[in-house]
């Protein structure tokens, strides 16, 4: 199934198809799980969609993903509204703006729909949020790698997917705090830039930074298109090997640049695995199962939930480098 992408005009037509699917779901009683991605048509979320569909097929339930054409939070709100109208059992979402989504997620829960989030550990109107890494562990992993690449000194910039994306900014906070405490000779050149879910914006921002800071040593990009755009700019300026570009990206999309030495690498979790967890966890909750401390959940392992914050956080980081990128890409990531 191709990933669904939305324009504002197309959303009305998509609503009609969702309503028809909802009628079928009501007739056969099969659990239906819909997941709203940050943005459609990019490798990271293509892999997540594959995980959703494969796991749903294995469980014999309905699972699908929708992806807006941009990171506009309003498009995610509309997609969730459509799922509420459809009457799905579970809504999953990877928020672009957690605060903007709170009212529509509350409406979903008020109507008895289970709500799951990913990459949004502070979400309020949610049954559970799950993370495949902790905020501190993820941010510090990047900080340590950047410090190693720059020899513990030099200037760097930080990109996030958006200034209102809570998790990206939390990762950035953790990375910057670690560098400030442990590497006083490293300097962040400016406030962070909210461009890392847009490859062209990341490229343009990097070109501007390279013009303004000839001595720039590195870029940390939290958002799957940020490292790609930054690396393209570095390559254009023929600064490969001089600028460390680290971030979260699809190995398949960045493989050539990793081998060419223009994209230094980074860390990730498996977005396909995240898609599988959306379905596994959603199906458990739809069937009336409760989350308990020490239980084993497929895709997450043994969990120690934060019942107050409604978070399930595990540590499953994967390093992306010249030795691992080909195998990761071969998995469809």
UniProtKB/TrEMBL annotation:
One term of GO molecular function: carbohydrate binding
InterPro entries xref list: Bact_Solute-Bind_Prot2, Peripla_BP_I, SBP_2_dom
Location of this chain's protein in the cell: Periplasm
Protein name in UniProt: Autoinducer 2-binding protein LsrB
Cleavable signal peptide: none
Species the sequence originates in: Pseudooceanicola algae
Domain Periplasmic binding protein: 33-289
Superkingdom: Bacteria
Family: Belongs to the bacterial solute-binding protein 2 family.
GO cellular component, one term: outer membrane-bounded periplasmic space
Record-linked Pfam families: Peripla_BP_4 (PF13407)
Gene3D superfamilies xref list: 3.40.50.2300
């Amino acid at each position: 199934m191709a990933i669904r992408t939305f324009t504002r005009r197309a959303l009305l037509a998509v609503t009609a198809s969702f309503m028809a699917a909802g009628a079928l779901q009501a007739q056969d009683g099969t659990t239906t799980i819909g997941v709203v991605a940050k943005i459609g048509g990019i490798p990271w979320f293509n892999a997540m969609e594959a995980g959703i569909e494969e796991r749903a097929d294995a469980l014999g339930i309905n699972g699908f993903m929708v992806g807006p054409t941009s990171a506009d939070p309003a498009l995610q709100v509309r997609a969730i509204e459509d799922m509420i109208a459809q009457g799905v059992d579970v809504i999953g979402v990877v928020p672009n703006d957690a605060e903007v989504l709170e009212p529509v997620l509350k409406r979903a829960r008020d109507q008895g729909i289970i709500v799951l989030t990913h990459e949004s550990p502070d979400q309020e109107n949610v049954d559970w949020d799950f993370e495949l890494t902790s905020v501190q562990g993820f941010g510090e992993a990047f900080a340590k790698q950047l410090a190693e690449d720059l020899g513990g000194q030099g200037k760097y910039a930080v990109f996030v997917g958006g200034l209102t994306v809570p998790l990206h900014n939390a990762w950035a906070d953790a990375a910057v705090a670690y560098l400030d405490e442990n590497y006083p000779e490293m300097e962040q050149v400016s406030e962070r830039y909210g461009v890392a879910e847009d490859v062209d914006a990341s490229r343009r921002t990097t070109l501007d930074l390279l013009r303004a800071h000839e001595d720039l040593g590195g870029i940390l990009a939290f958002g799957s298109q940020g490292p790609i755009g930054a690396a393209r700019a570095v390559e254009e300026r023929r600064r490969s090997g001089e600028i460390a570009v680290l971030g979260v990206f699809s190995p398949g999309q960045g493989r050539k640049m990793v081998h060419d030495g223009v994209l230094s690498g980074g860390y990730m979790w498996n977005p396909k695995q995240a898609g599988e967890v959306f379905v596994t966890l959603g199906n458990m909750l739809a069937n009336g199962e409760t989350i308990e401390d020490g239980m084993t959940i497929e895709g997450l392992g043994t969990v120690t939930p934060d019942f107050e914050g409604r978070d399930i956080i595990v540590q499953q980081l994967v390093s992306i480098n010249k030795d691992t990128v080909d195998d990761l890409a071969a998995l469809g990531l």
